[in-house]
Amino acid sequence: MKVLEVRGLTKYFNGQKVLDDLNFALNEGEVLGFLGPNGAGKTTTLKIITGLYRPSAGRVFIAGIDAVADPIKTKGLFGVCTQDFTFNAHYSIEQDLYFYARLYGLSRRAAMEKARRALEWAGLLEHRRKNGDHLSGGMRKKILFARAMINDPPLLLLDEPTTGLDVRARWELWEMIRDLKSRGKSILLTTHYLEEAEQLCDRILIIKRGRLVAEGGPGELRQIVDVARLMTVDLNRQLTLEEKEWLCALPGVKNCKSRGTTVEVALDSSPQQVGDLVQEICRRLQPLNISLREASLEEVFLEVTGRED
């Protein structure tokens, strides 16, 4: 089932196109990574989904409801975790969550129960009488997660939820996201941490200048850009121009870059071709060391977003 569907989304600001016929879908129980360089259109897309912006063209459907034509009907179907901490200085975090629950029309008793359950889920019940400004960065993010879940919506929009957190706090939020997925929630996750996307996402979308340029799982994305593996060749000297041209022309080599005495070789070859390639390199260049690894998602991201239009 498609919990979120974006069709032909286009947006202009002052005559400048920031989204260009964007199409994607998020399935039930799926974590979808939404990646792109700064200014690619990720935040604009989220604001259109939540009804803060109207698109210049296109449609957004949440659980089958047209969110552009009737945004009020979709308000209870999604929760949002933003990058910003916004807490009322006069409220405890329990009162804060109670207030958000009441916005959904719940009775006082039901809203207080929702707030306590959200605090228990976030592991913050013992801090319930504290103000949000008195909590650590990791705890504040957990409160934002709890807000997003206060109405138990099927769709969660997480906008760079772990930015600025230390390793432990980030890991704790990863566990919360995995828990939400296990409960069948559909999650659209924007992040600048490529490792985070690789760890958490079932599929990944990469956009550039408002257009979708790549889509798939991490392994599928490696195939899209024809970078299956990366070989690092360490030499006792710098590679000559003639040797670099020879290396780049070998079968199975997509491209090669040299930095000092280290050469990075991007491969699209089969295991058998790699063996032949290693023998050729050893014969001609006599390297100190050769190592082979799969291309990381970061390298795929740079390859995709670095393409010329």
Automatic annotation (TrEMBL):
It holds the Pfam family DrrA1-3_C. SUPFAM superfamilies: P-loop containing nucleoside triphosphate hydrolases (SSF52540). PROSITE patterns: ABC_TRANSPORTER_1, ABC_TRANSPORTER_2. Keywords: ATP-binding, Nucleotide-binding, Transport. Transmembrane segments: none annotated. GO terms for molecular function: ATP binding; ATP hydrolysis activity. Gene3D superfamilies: P-loop containing nucleotide triphosphate hydrolases. Residues 4-234 form the ABC transporter domain. Belongs to the ABC transporter superfamily. This is Nod factor export ATP-binding protein I. It comes from Thermacetogenium phaeum.
